[in-house]
Design the sequence.
């Protein structure tokens, strides 16, 4: 009798321990899930040519969320907290795939094979001349008529601890848009646990070619559709910029920013210089210029720019391995596009910080080279890091 009640007591204790262990392990797994974030893939739509497009939603433990579609590798939405923890989408976009296919001024897309302009759509490698589409007459812009922002990429979910991402791959065939060489491209978007959108670009080729990849997100830290970004404070670590001609091709000069609207070495509002009478600002219709970053000689990641919006308290830092950043104040938006905010977009409603090699480098021997040879790997990283004050 005494013996059996002792056994019973032991059994009850063992059961309690097991239950407690199960509870603890459940709690640990719930916490792990909360700490690790998630990647959700869903169908987004079908292109006019009948190709299926997926959307990847990356959410981190802090609740920040990025949506990326396989069409163009476009960042369609990027939600980050303000100083009170309220999320807002800080990039411009559209509501439908058809809008992205038919009228996108590069909102959020992966730009390639060559970001920005190549003069007269021509360049030579080892004496062979290549001709590109003059889709921004007389120049070629952002990879031509159907650049990487208009191609359907192959997506694959990536998860690494608290960091969540999507890996996008695309094979650009030899001769596509006039560029030589089969170019195998990989772009990995990662939303880190620290509210960073990290973009790792890599590429290899089987013939010498030129490569200059970037992302064309239009940022507004007050929120998509909140109006102009003229009150945003901008700091850029650049002593020099590349002045342009009337067709926005660099003249080749690396000009000092000193005493010009291009001097952001002390943070100032974008509005303070955007309507300046300086010839360069008139040519650009605002900021549409490449800044020459003061960066370490090696290709480490360095802080290039910082954007701050006082009402929300949001700051975005731009870290990059690239030598330049194209700062574009959405000068060509004219109120004719209705976006994902439901309202129309007007000039100055966003700012792009396109990390890159300088425009027209294939025709400018003194600019850092954009050549990629067989056997080499093009590799570059840019991080957009969001914090609040
Ligand atoms: C870049 C160019 C601009 C414009 C935009 C897209 O920033 O420099 O001139 O083409 O892309 O509209």
Sequence:
């Amino acid at each position: 009798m005494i013996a059996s009640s002792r056994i019973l007591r032991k059994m009850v204790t063992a059961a309690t321990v097991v239950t407690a262990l199960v509870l603890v392990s459940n709690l640990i797994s719930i916490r792990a899930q909360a700490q690790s974030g998630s990647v959700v893939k869903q169908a987004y739509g079908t292109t006019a040519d009948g190709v299926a497009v997926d959307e990847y939603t990356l959410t981190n433990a802090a609740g920040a969320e990025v949506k990326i579609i396989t069409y163009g590798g476009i960042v369609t939405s990027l939600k980050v907290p303000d100083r009170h923890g309220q999320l807002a989408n800080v990039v411009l976009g559209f509501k439908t795939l058809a809008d992205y296919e038919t009228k996108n001024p590069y909102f959020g897309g992966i730009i390639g094979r060559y970001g920005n302009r190549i003069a007269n759509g021509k360049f030579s490698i080892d004496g062979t001349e290549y001709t590109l589409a003059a889709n921004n007459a007389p120049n070629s812009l952002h990879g031509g008529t159907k650049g990487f922002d208009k191609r359907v990429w192959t997506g694959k979910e990536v998860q690494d601890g608290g960091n969540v991402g999507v890996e996008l791959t695309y094979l650009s065939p030899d001769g596509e848009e006039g560029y030589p060489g089969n170019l195998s491209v990989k772009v990995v978007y990662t939303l880190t646990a620290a509210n960073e959108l990290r973009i790792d670009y890599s590429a290899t080729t089987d013939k010498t070619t030129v490569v200059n990849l970037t992302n064309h997100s239009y940022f507004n830290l007050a929120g998509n559709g909140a109006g102009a970004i003229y009150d945003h404070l901008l700091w850029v670590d650049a002593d020099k910029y590349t002045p342009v001609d009337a067709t926005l091709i660099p003249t080749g000069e690396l000009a000092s920013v000193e005493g010009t609207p291009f001097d952001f070495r002390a943070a100032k509002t974008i509005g303070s210089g955007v309507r300046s009478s300086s010839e360069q600002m008139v040519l650009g219709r605002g900021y549409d210029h490449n800044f020459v970053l003061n960066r370490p000689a090696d290709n480490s990641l360095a802080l290039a720019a910082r954007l701050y919006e006082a009402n929300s308290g949001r700051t975005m830092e731009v870290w990059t391995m690239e030598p330049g950043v194209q700062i574009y104040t959405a000068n060509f938006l004219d109120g004719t596009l209705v976006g994902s905010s439901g309202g129309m977009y007007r000039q100055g409603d966003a700012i792009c910080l396109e990390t890159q090699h300088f425009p027209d480098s294939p025709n400018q021997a003194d600019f850092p080279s954009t050549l990629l040879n067989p056997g080499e790997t093009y590799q570059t990283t840019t991080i957009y890091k969001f914090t609040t004050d």
Q: What stands out?
A: The chain has four helices and 29 strands.
